[in-house]
Amino acid sequence: MLAMQILMKWIDVGTIGYRHYSTLMGRMIDEQRVPYQGAVYQNTKENFRRNLQGILQQADIAGVPVMISELVSKVRDQPPFTSIESGEFPAADVVYQQANQQVVDGNYQRAKETYFRAKDLDALRFRAPEEFNDVIHQIAEEFSVPVVPMKHYFEQASPNGLVGENLMLEHLHPNVDGAHLMAAAFFDALRKHGFISREWNEVLIKSMAFYSGEWPVTELDRALGRLRVMHLMDNWPFSPLDAPGNAFEHYQPGSMAEELAYRDAKRELGFEQARIDLAKYMNHKNSLRWRCLNIAH
Predict the structure, then answer these.
(1) Measured between alpha carbons, how far is residue 260 from residues 32, 209, 228, 268, 280 in Å?
(2) How many degrees, rounded to 5, is the angle at CA 81 between CA 111 and CA 44?
(3) Cα dist from 283 to 222, 274, 287, whole Å
(4) In which band, very low, low, confident or very high, does the pLDDT at 190 lie, cut at 50, 70 and 90?
(5) Mean pLDDT over residues 221-244, rounded?
(6) Cα(285)–Cα(132) distance, rounded to whole angstroms?
(7) Is residue 294 part of a domain?
(8) 246 touches 234 (CB < 8 A)
(9) CB 237 within 8 A of CB 26
(10) Which of 70, 99, 170, 261 could form a disulfide with 224 if both were Cys (CB 3.0 to 4.6 A apart)?
(11) Domain presence at residue 169
(12) Number of structural domains, the chain?
């Protein structure tokens, strides 16, 4: 229903009407307001429930084993996008500041609960409310489907159990460490519940540290990812519509990988060419180092 409302608004305003949205994310989210526990909120939650039931029912009929994961998002380091007072519910930004103060006071468990509350009250629905995790557990129990405890993994790997910039790129997409943690959570769940095979050959299973060390992500990948997120967060809804940020434009590369990533992000250089240029640079640098070592000896 909400998606249809956004689509109709695009049709109404036409192409010219949303040119001020600099990113696809900005155009998709527009300036929709969905108050906590309001009619649209309740309809969306029930649609989510019915859709999830339908998916698991079809999988059950087809005999396809399924597991489902909890939803996790950034709660610390992510102020609410839109704060409104709605009936008995306070503004999200007020609650978020209360959570920040509880962190200062060292009351981390209470802060976590308050951060969740601030997220749930955020009227720009960029992060799923905690009630959606309740729905996931309810429907999973109904169909006897295992649930991956993703929140637990992320909270255990976060300072004081507060998921923030340590594992998230922006509001909910994991960074490299977060992606590896997510893979580990699914791996452990597959193993625990006997997916693929009832018995897993322990000899073949290596430590998570090993898999993390073999993660196929280069410094160029990391730099480009940081820049794309930087550009995203310079614009709505991370920055005001009438006051976009300029962190991307003022970015100063600190390495060759960052310089090539910046040129790629500005579309001055293709990704494949950036990889080739970085390989040439590293080859030349290693060649010079080898020569210096030979001279020294």
Answers:
(1) 37, 29, 13, 9, 12
(2) 95
(3) 20, 14, 6
(4) very high
(5) 91
(6) 51
(7) yes
(8) yes
(9) yes
(10) 261
(11) no
(12) 1
